[in-house]
Amino acid sequence: MSLTKGKIETVLFYAKRELKYEEGTNNDTKFGKWYGLNKQPWCAMFVSWVFYKAGLSKKIAASNSKGFASCDAGLKWFAAKNKLVPIGQAQPGDIAFFQFDTDAQPDHVGIVVKNRRGHLYCIEGNTTPNRKGSQSNGGGVYRKKRPYSVVMAVARPIKEKHERKRYSQNQICIASLCSNCRKRLGSQS
Q1: How many structural domains does the chain have?
Q2: What is the pTM of this model?
C-alpha cells in the first residue's frame, strides 16, 4: 500500500482539526486516555492518535497496535524498519523527531506539513504556541516552524510507489540526523 495524496490529506486533516486543543491539569488529554497512558507527556500519543484516525496505525506501530508513546521508541522503530529519510527530503505526512537539548535522545515529535528553506513546518501536540515555555511539554496542539538544526530525524511511515531509491540503514541513519546530532553521536563512540 502506498501513501497516496488522499492518505496524506487525511493525516493532515485530523492533525489540523486538533489545532489549539489544550490539555487539562497535569497532561490530562484525550490522546493519553485513548492510548492508555494519560497524564504523561503526550506528543507521541498525539501523532499516534492522528495516524489511528487516518486508518494508518499499522504504519507507526512502534510500541503497540496504537503506535508509540515514547519519542525514543518511535525513532528506534522507524530506524529499524528503514523508514528514515534525509531531513531535506521531508514531505507532508512525515514524522519529525526533534532534539532541544544535548543528549542523544529525541525530545519531541510532530507531523510535517511543509518543508521550506531550511525549516520544517509541523503540527505538534504537547508544545507551546510560541517560543516561550517548554517546546516538548507545553500543553497544546499548535503549528510550529522548526529549523533543521533542531530536527534529529524524519520518518516516512509509508513510502510512495515512485520512491525507488534504497539506502543502507547506516547511510540513512547518519544522513537523516542533523549535523549537531551527528557530532554528539560521534563524540559518544
Answers
A1: 1
A2: 0.84
